[in-house]
Specification:
The chain contains no helices and 10 strands. The chain is mostly beta strands. Strand 4 and strand 5 form a beta hairpin.
Length: 121
C-alpha cells in the first residue's frame, strides 16, 4: 500500500452537481451525492453511491485490478437499451484508508458508456 503524497496526490471532494450516467437511452446512475476523485495528473473520476446506481443493470465480472494507492477494484458489465459494455464500471469494495470515502461507490469509464453528464442544478 502506498500513501498519496506530493509525488502522487489524491483528493476526494463532494461534487455539488447532479451526475447522470447514460447507456442505450437508459439512466444507469443519477446522483447529487457524487465524490470527485482527483489522482495526480489523471482526469477526475466521479464516484457514485451504490444506492444511486441501477444495480439491476450491472453484472459483476471476474475482472480485478490493483491500485497501490486505492486497493483492489472489482468490475461490472453495464447493460442498457440493448447495449452491453463489459467491465464498464468499477468499485473498491475495501479501499485503503486514505481513500475510504469511495467505499460503497461506483465509477464508470466514459468511453464505455454513452455519457457521464454533469448538471449545474
Amino acid at each position: 500500500m502506498k500513501e498519496p503524497g506530493p509525488d502522487h496526490p489524491i483528493t476526494i471532494t463532494q461534487n455539488p452537481h447532479r451526475i447522470r450516467v447514460m447507456l442505450g437511452g437508459f439512466i444507469v446512475a443519477e446522483t447529487t451525492q457524487a465524490l470527485t476523485l482527483q489522482e495526480a495528473t489523471l482526469p477526475p473520476v466521479q464516484y457514485i453511491p451504490r444506492e444511486d446506481v441501477r444495480m439491476d443493470l450491472l453484472d459483476s465480472t471476474e475482472h480485478r485490478t490493483h491500485c497501490p494507492y486505492k486497493g483492489n477494484a472489482s468490475y461490472f458489465t453495464v447493460n442498457g437499451g440493448g447495449l452491453v459494455r463489459e467491465n464498464a464500471a468499477w468499485s473498491y469494495e475495501e479501499p485503503f484508508p486514505s481513500v475510504v470515502a469511495i467505499k460503497e461507490h461506483l465509477a464508470f469509464y466514459p468511453e464505455k458508456v454513452d455519457a457521464i453528464e454533469e448538471f449545474m442544478d
